[in-house]
Sequence to fold (139 residues):
Amino acid sequence: MKQLLTVLLLVGALTAAKAQGNLQFNQAIFLEKSIVLPANISSPFTEQSITVPAGKVWKIESVMASFFQNSASPNPGFSTSGTVMLNKKIIFSTGNVASFPIWLPEGTYTIRYIYNNSTSGSINELYGAISAIEFNVIP
Fold:
């Protein structure tokens, strides 16, 4: 009888305890940034501020950066060599990809897409994208 009462009290206490909030799916997010670049720029980049609203959390699933080269360049078309930074931390670079997912709590962040190449005068457009899932934090 004592064991049954102890088990019931333990189950009731565990059911009532809340160690952390729950996450509820809110929406899928796809952020894109694209700029046309001036000629003969040695290190083109573009920045984007993103804000995770209060009561939300973002789960970044993937990141990509590509750069369009015009037909006058030796290799016209899209190139995937570039870097994406999140608050000055590299999350994607050619040959160097951060571990995904990346969780972002509420707050404001700076995303920077960079192409480093001394011959970038042939680069016409810089493009970056981030795929994320937004969750509501349920207390």
Remarks:
- Residues 20-138 form a domain with the Jelly Rolls fold (CATH 2.60.120).
- Helices lie at 2-16.
